[in-house]
Automatic annotation (TrEMBL):
It comes from the Bacteria. In the C-terminal section; belongs to the transposase 35 family. It comes from Nostoc commune NIES-4072. This is ISSoc10, orfB transposase. Residues 1-45 form the Transposase putative helix-turn-helix domain.
Amino acid sequence: MRTAYQYKLRPTTKQAIDIDRWLSMLCAQYNYLLADRFDWYERNRSPINACPLVCHIPELRDNPDYYSQKKTLPQLKKTHPWYGEIYSQVLQDIVKRVKVTFDRFLKGDSNGKRSGRPRFKSRDRYRTFTYPQMKDGCLQGNLITLPMFGIVKVLKHRPIPDGFKIKTASVTKKADGYYLTLSLEDTTVPNIKPDFNADSITGIDLGLKEFLTTSEGDVVSIPQHYRKSQKRLRAIQKRISRRKKGSNRRKKAIKQVAKQHKKVADKRKDFHFKTVNNLLKKYDVVVHEDLNVKGLSRSMLAKSVHDAGWSSFLSILSTKAENAGLLVIAVNPSGTSLDCSSCGVKVPKKLHERWHSCLCGCSLDRDHNAAIVIKNRAVGHPVLKAHRVSVRVASPPGEAIAGFGEKPTLYCTQSV
């Protein structure tokens, strides 16, 4: 199992200057290697419908792949001796970054989805360098030894779990200082809990009026961190527009905006982790909608969707549940707000209508009804079958479902 812990660094003034210089040199090398790839791409591509009958075919270049670009690094240190102060594996990681970026542009990722044309990075946008390998015992107390850089102080706010080994280390420059990200590996794989409590399965409905509503009727309010900080952001952004481009006062104002945005992001992330922690303490299985968050973020509700951070929340929920040996299941989101949780009939509702009322007598909050429908859709799910967890359809509070006679219950069978 792999996990990542992030700590804040406390470098000396000289070390902070060295980090900035390393980032500047690595940025220049990244842009050079990317330009070399683009040069090969432009020379070797020739659309058939654009080629004249008589044409001169230029001499084709060999593809600058990962290994050929890696072989240029010793020569780089001869022609540019100042690159010799950077650890060799950090330079090799730049070649890997360029390879991954360009391959996604040409071939796509594992799902075949291609990204846009890679962009050259300015010094302000290149903020991280990585050590692909770290020695055992590199972190002693609140000090970490970075090869060819030195010993740097770390604010170790939480200990590394027993049995985990440090595999990689990344140094990142952010608006409020420098951070160290350690990638940790544990050879043991968490197993799914062999027994599930029948009362610890819930469905959650994510929303913009309330952040989420569970099938038991519990509600988590939405904090709206970005909207609450808009007044402060507006004031700082006005300072930027009024100051001369390139001046030190403008740079200070830009840094203030960056710090404010980071503060909002940190608050949102902290809220997500605490919400996930509360859910997984109470339930063994969490069922949610398989939302197209990217599509929703392009709608008229884009600002509210981004402020809620659904995608980040669901990612954290899945990761934390897997580490704890619990289950998170995504179901089809189609019609969850319209279907009646009691009889299954579609009850058309506009977005502003927040109460669900059906002819069968089911009357409850719209989000609560949707959460129950989401939970009911987990019935017979392949993941639950694989772990021998059986779920019967849950009815709304105080209601009976047609065909059952009385309020059904949930049950589970212990897996062997």
